[in-house]
Amino acid sequence: MEPVAARRLLLLRHGQTTYNATRRMQGQLDTELSEEGVAQAERVAAHVGRRERDIRRIVSSDLSRAAQTADAVGRVLGLDVERDSRLRETFLGKWQGRTHGEIDAEYPGQRATWRHDATWAPPGGETRVEVAARMRAVVDELLDDESWPGSTVLLVAHGGAIAALTASLLDVPVSHYTMFNGLRNTAWVELTARPRPDGELGWYLGAFNAEVFGEDTGEESER
User: Does Iron appear among the keywords (predicted)?
Assistant: First the structure.
């Protein structure tokens, strides 16, 4: 039996928004990139253009901050960007648009609970488990693309949603989902899918929170 080529998946977080800079919760609010965020998107697009020429598809959240970042990469690679609302950030319910301080004052202790329990949702919002399920459905559909083996697919989305998807793909217990957090703006996750000895597809982590840190050197950090 001929070996099946690996599928590589990159998960890129969008550039900075003014909400990020002021520690305000965005969730599914449709915010745009700040001036710094646009510069970050251009830098990461240039990096991708130098290092990632085997990307065959780009799929982005339909929220503007992710779509703007994805479009910057698409322009460099000469690829159209597909939009999928299932790649949106966690819906944060009553917390959306509010600062960390405001939430902590009105809902004392709840933000800490949310950070450490993937089955807990903000008032009126989604759990990490629910986010992981809708994100995973996109990847499962992409697996039907016969051009993926031997190439790379890029998903451009949001920090919390990418963390949830990473945990799901790596089959970590739900109690450990929150170990993946703190993804910086325009940082990315690298995953590779290969057939396991039992014939099932297994996902393997290559990098988490990798980022471009030099404008002209082409260097990157994989902290």
Answer: no
